[in-house]
Write a structure and sequence with these properties.
This protein is an alpha+beta fold. 20% of the residues lie in helices and 37% in strands. The strands form two sheets. Strands 1-2-3 form a three-stranded antiparallel sheet, with no helix packed on it. The two termini are 34 Å apart.
Amino acid sequence: MYESSDQKIFIGTTDGLLIYDRLKDRKNSIGSFTNINTIEINDKVYPYQTSFVLPYKKYTIKVSYSGINFSSLIKFITAAIWKTLILTGVI
């Protein structure tokens, strides 16, 4: 990994060189969508609900979640479509 004087970051990967330009990075005013996948309390999975009332005691609580930034999703889908079109010989 290398940062140039113009604030670009160069990262070597097994698939080639990745160049990240901080100046072109867009700040998204809308946060990502977060989805709660599972809630476990003391190793037992519970269905989603907006709140839980638990008596006083020691608990182990695990929340499994995933987040999606729709701006990034559009870029990913567009890249995947182009790659498919190129690999199938359409383009």
